[in-house]
Amino acid sequence: MSNQDYYVPHGTYWPIIGSIGISTLFVGFANLLHDVSWGGPVMGLGGTIVVFMLFGWLGTVVNESVGGIYNKQVDRSFRWGMSWFIFSEVMFFAAFFGALFYARVLSVPWLGGAGNNLFTPELWEGFKAAWPLVSTPGAIGQNGTEFSVGFELVDAWGLPALNTALLLSSGVTITYAHHALRNGHRNALIAWMVATIALGVLFLGFQITEYGHAYHEGLRLTSGVYGSTFYLLTGFHGFHVTVGAIMLTVILYRIQKGHFSSENHFAFEGVAWYWHFVDVVWLGLFIFVYWL
Amino acid sequence: MKKLLPLTGILTALLSSKSALAEYGLNMTQGVTSTSQDIYDLHMLIFWVCVAIGVVVFGAIFYSIIAFRKSQGAKAAHFHESTTVEFIWTGIPILILIAMAIPASKVLIDIETLEKADLTVKVTGHQWKWQYEYPEQGIGYISNLAQTSKDAIGSDKKPENYLLEVDNPLVLPVDTKIRFLITSSDVIHNWWVPELAVKQDGNPGFINDSWTEIAEEGVYRGQCAELCGKDHGFMPIVVEAVSKDAFAAWIADQKAEEEAAAASATIVWSEEELMASGENIYNASCSGCHQKDGSGMPGVFPAMSGSSITNGPAADHLSIVINGKGGMPAFKMLGDSDLASVITYERKAFGNNGSVVQPSDVTSAR
Amino acid sequence: MNTAAHDDHHGPEKGLLRWIKATNHKDIGTLYLWFAFAMLIVGGALAMGIRAELLHPGLQLMNPHFFNQLTTMHGLIMVFGAIMPAMVGLANWLIPTMVGAPDMALPRLNNWSFWVLPFAALILVSTFFMEGGAPAFGWTFYAPLSTAFAPDSTDFFIFAVHLLGFSSIMGAINIIATVLNMRAPEMRLMDMPLFVWTWLITSFLLIGAMPVLAGVVTMMLTDRNFGTAFFDATGGGDPVMFQHIFWFFGHPEVYIMILPAFGIISHILPTFSRKPLFGYSSMVYATASIAFLSYIVWAHHMYATGMPVAAELYFMYATMLIAVPTGVKVFNWVATMWKGSLTFEAPMLWALSFLFLFTIGGFSGLMLGIAPADIQYHDTYFVVAHFHYVLVTGSLWAIIAATLYWLPKWVGKMYNEKLAKIHFWWAMISVNVLFFPQHFLGLAGMPRRIPDYALQFSDFNWISSIGAFAFGLSFILFAYIVVDCIRNGSPTNSERPWYSAKGLEWTLSSPIPYHSFNTPPSRAQILEESQHS
Ligand code: HEA
Ligand code: HEA
Ligand code: CUA
Ligand SMILES: [Cu+2]
After folding, report:
1. The domain B265-365 belongs to what CATH superfamily?
2. pLDDT given at position C533
């Protein structure tokens, strides 16, 4: 490993490919939303380019890392980068948690006439403010959505509680994996990694089952603000678990290729941080979305 | 400083080049309510505080520019810190701010509290007109931008009160505590009359309240103050403040008119009558979006000419106008005969050939 | 330990590829700056459209729907296309040279941060040509005007905002990593020059605020297309909730645009006063306080929404507090000049003018912050005047000042001082003709975002429009001055074109070498060049 110079890479094509990919993806998506026939395929194309770019770019970085070009300082740059990236993700979730709290603590009671909204109930005959909001003030939304009301709530102490246990234990297993990595116990490392991934996948499986139940009981994206916050929060979380699980799998693959040493394994740690972050978000979800 | 001379020259030239006689306000109105007066006083207070601070700060800058010029042989000192000074100029602004916050809080709390109202008026914003209702008196109507202003938008001749005139002003009694209930049926609007110092968002689905007590009779004009789409600039507010007696008389008149309108909805109208009244209503209420010639605005507002709804079954047409849909506002607040005439007009004008709709059809469609 | 390693050492590639594949902080900085300038012209052209329509009462040039598109896109393009990228461009050029680093910490990511911008801009501008036109709901895109009542192009706008946000977040991460990790080993945090400090703090604002913007546009997307009801009362949501989330981003956003400007001014004033910056550490603390406060004052944009009175009181007090640290900065700048030895080269003129005009904008901001008074100011041209004083004669002024101040260092050539002075006075006068009357318009009751107005507003609108055209033309001269300097400027006769300038960037040769610092500066050198010595 180089401990002399800061590595300043030469020109690279990956970012521009990434930009083209992500823009293609978005343009395709926007067209898909407006029923343009080529929207879907173009979106798919964009997605493919992005995946291609990710593999190419990260592949380059992996090669450089394995090639020993990076030094401690580069490693630290990556660490700063990853931690602040995770912080930005935290803020992204904060927006949705904010929406949840706002709806729950403020807008729904206000619609029922709380605070200085004494007169508001005049607009909504028969509406009773309550959380979870199983009946919406109006039947049809401003953009024509027919709200799916009268749904059954998901019981926090069923699958969600189980999922909490699964995800929390996956946080433990990945920590064991890290210890194994640091102590050079390769087989234990692999075993703990497999366990972590398995727990993540299991979590996702249960989450999908639970979505199926909820959907069947009438809880939809269109179930007013309760359904909106429920699905966007859990949905984005599920998406992050999926990404995390994929990254873990890549790391597992790299472990088998022998990319990491007991000192030098930033990629592993970055993904582990990410996994913990996903974990903590879930805890928030469990408490505020399912339980309370 | 010589450079400032041409500047003043240019400024005076600019000022005198246009009609020098036109009245232009430079400052906030003092208004005709105690709150508007309070706000004006507060505004002047904070303004003068800022001027005073400005004099000190800008004075110091100017002094430095003049006194410490290198060209005048100024030698640079080397100090770059002084905890005392920095402490002082952190502390003094805090004191100034506290001095400002006290009266500001008083005025704010005053504006936000109303124990008991003598009259309640419900104000609903629609794209792009205001609806006024007097729930206790049981009357209500729509207030649109006056036709005289609409006609003048593209021409050089502008009427007096251009864009600040409406067909039906809001009539209010003086010396009465009036509570406004402000809301909206579509997007956010904001009901603002500077002389009353009332500016409150109308949020769709929520009712905000606000109050006023007008001290002087007169006509007060305002505008919608929240971007609400295409004709945001064309939904003015006119308040006519009248004596309590005149107000009572006006209420009685208004009631009689509404009764007459209700009676007219039970008879059968001729197509000509419907078309004539329909054209007026169309121009007042619908042309803002669907355009005077029914051509609409592609991608935003559908055309009325050749539309499958205006040429199709009357039931669909009735339903979309009465209940609205997406960007199309609901017009259930219009009377039956008004709705019948505007719908008939849409179905017959612009080269359409839909059927005639009678007020009784509207009654049964509701 | 801090030098740059390479597979080979023969400088940049040739031609277009150099820019597309760029990983060098100076190349990327250049890209950012030219991109920002192009966007300034586009956004400015839209502003010219606005002012042309407002020249006289009546509708002469366009329909109201198109006018709203102009206003919206003008705001968006100026904020996200001109000011922010220009500041990032300056950061790219300057931060590595100011902290003694060879380059940015994550050069490839740096490239990506830039190269998503042109695509985002393309998507944004293309909405003008879609059916129903471009977004027409203001740069603040309040729901439900932007959800249930907006044209189809809104979804493209949403994705453009996602891309812009992505770019800013990645840019900010890079700057944090650079400042915290690439700093010369001998440089302590409190040795860092103020431009670096202000950008470090700005990066935290970006990372905290931009994801929230991404969140709120995502909610818009689902409200528009997937039947959610975040901002729809019929489903239990609230359009005012949109405003809370938006302004939680939006208010820090305005400080994102001004803090780096504060940094720039803190370099220029000492240089031309030949005196060290007054109150270095209180400048740092003031910047941090402003950043902190900026997260807790957002609802001062929402006094008219019908918030409970307790909330209004709280937001009023918190807003007023911002005057304190900002005042500290202003006073420190004045004290920097005090007993100095002042000369008035163009960068200094711009900095002085910033000091005046930004302060005026700050005063009107303070007035807006007083909740009961804001009842009369809100959504009038008084607000428009306020934010153009802080944005145009604040942020933009600082960007122009910085360009003139560091350009000679970057290219090793001097601009034409005489032309620069003419340009300054031209812009300085016309910008006041443009924006000062807008205070009067607002106080007299003219709402913002209207394409046509009542007759009593005619005169001041006319003056303002004339000022706008004059100010717009001044940018042609500015472009000429910059291009002329790059092409034909006379070589600077020393490493320090401004003899009195301090800072590590001036110790490099002119023009700056490809890899800024191959060996980190020594402690002595750092102290020698620091702002508090
Ligand atoms: C660079 C951008 C920038 C900056 C720096 C500021 C600075 C400030 N702004 Fe401004 N603002 C905007 C950009 C900015 N603003 C924009 C874009 C909008 C409109 C958004 C939209 O709706 O489209 C807006 C709108 C806006 C509003 C909402 C108005 C409305 O819509 O009704 C308010 C209200 O409080 C406000 C307040 C302030 C305050 C208190 C400051 C303070 O930071 C100012 C502090 C500075 C000083 C006070 C001067 C110097 C200090 C001294 C000399 C010390 C002594 C002074 C005293 C003790 C008074 N701003
Ligand atoms: C961030 C920075 C920024 C900058 C730099 C500017 C610069 C300018 N702004 Fe802008 N403005 C905003 C941010 C900014 N603005 C925002 C956020 C809004 C709110 C939007 C909303 O309500 O949603 C706004 C709104 C706004 C309005 C209110 C619109 C309305 O409410 O309807 C007006 C009206 O006068 C205006 C004017 C101008 C002008 C004349 C300039 C000039 O300074 C521009 C000068 C630059 C050029 C002109 C370009 C270069 C010149 C040339 C290429 C020369 C040739 C051109 C000609 C002479 C035609 N702006
Ligand atoms: Cu209604 Cu603006
Ligand atoms: Cu703000």
Report:
1. Cytochrome c-like domain (1.10.760.10)
2. 66
